[in-house]
Amino acid sequence: MKRTCSLAALILAAALSLTGCQCQKKIAIGAHRGFWRCDEAAQAQNSIASFRVAQDNGFWGSEFDVNMTADDQLIVVHGPAIQDVEDVRALPLDSLAHIKLPNGEGIPTLAAYIDQAAASPCMMVLEIKPHDSPERDAFVTRAIIDLLKEKGRFDPKQVMFISFSYDVCRYIAENAPEFTNQYLEGDKSPAELHADGINGLDYYYEVFRAHPEWVAEAHKLGMSVNVWTVDEAEVMQEMIDAGVDCITTNEPLLCRELLGSRERRP
Ligand code: MG
């Protein structure tokens, strides 16, 4: 009798957990500019250390910003200004050599950043910063794709693209359609993006407050939905309830606490 009861309890628990899995989809955490608000990364955003700490903590993804210098070198820095430099895009790489991040690192090259990806699985959420013309945007994006190929990391499971530049998103849609490609600006509906072959959106949370229907609309079109940059528990919960696929945050541990078993891991 006792054995039958435990078996029945086991079956019930399994059924409940299956039901739970179906209605509670997993949500990914993207560490914004890496996981930098911690001692290990010493507050250094977009540093190799912040990427490494995001990997060490097992977050699904780590976001970072890519710019190109005047001598066509790809670097990881938010920019365009940093410290005494007004615009990293207007100077050659060696003019940036004196800049030190709070943890002592220099501005990382994209090549070094991509090399760090080998350490452990963590989606590279690669933001391509706008440059000064559609032609330059295309040149920068092509160079990023070529470098990823050269490094053996041109793989939709390892890297995805985000950009405020519509030209960049359209370029990715045409030249790398198999990759997740999210537009950041927030001024286009999912249907408009979809019509241009762009398969995702990554919008400021206020945009989803103004257009709560865009999450379902995007999902119906098979698009991915990411939200930036959510650092407060209340807003995180709001976005979880709204049904986004990924939350981009400077507070990934707080997001982990809220998501619990619903966190999507690499
Ligand atoms: Mg960014």
Describe this structure in words.
This protein has one domain (7-264): TIM Barrel (Alpha-Beta Barrel). With 266 residues, the protein is of the alpha/beta class. Mean pLDDT is 94; it is low at 1-5 and 16-22. It has an eight-stranded parallel barrel with strand order 1-2-4-5-6-7-8-9, surrounded by five helices. It has helices spanning 2-23, 48-56, 110-116, 134-150, 166-175, 190-195, 205-210, 213-220, 233-242, 252-259, and strands at residues 27-31, 61-68, 74-76, 123-128, 159-163, 181-183, 200-204, 224-228, 246-249, 263-264. The structure holds magnesium ion. Residues 63, 65, 127 line the site of magnesium ion (MG). Residues 63, 65, 127 line the site of magnesium ion.
List the helices and strands and how they pair.
Blueprint lengths: L1 H22 L3 E5 L16 H9 L4 E8 L5 E3 L33 H7 L6 E6 L5 H17 L8 E5 L2 H10 L5 E3 L6 H6 L4 E5 H6 L2 H8 L3 E5 L4 H10 L3 E4 L2 H8 L3 E2 L2
Parallel strand pairs: 1-2, 1-9, 1-10, 2-4, 4-5, 5-6, 6-7, 7-8, 8-9
Antiparallel strand pairs: 2-3
Helix pairs in contact: 4-5, 9-10
The structure holds magnesium ion.
Magnesium ion (MG) binds next to strand 2.
